[in-house]
Amino acid sequence: MNILLNGEPRELPSGATLADAIALLDPAPPFAAAVNRDFVPRSAYAGRALQAGDEVEVIRPVTGG
């Protein structure tokens, strides 16, 4: 299935989860993830199934002034 991962098209196998998509990026903590602009708690990454066309964003928090 095709998804957008941080704005880039990616191909994932059917049944892939948010955890699978995050693994492609291998981000250093801390980071947050959203699917179709909905925040997903870290505890739900492995259980959040993705669908074709989903938009996944993995972002790092920004601090400072």
UniProtKB/TrEMBL annotation:
Domain of life assignment: Bacteria
Pfam family membership, one: ThiS
Entries under Gene3D superfamilies matching the protein: 3.10.20.30
InterPro entries: Beta-grasp_dom_sf (IPR012675), Mopterin_synth/thiamin_S_b (IPR016155), Thi_S (IPR010035), ThiS/MoaD-like (IPR003749)
Protein name: Thiamine biosynthesis protein ThiS
Source organism per UniProt: Pseudacidovorax intermedius
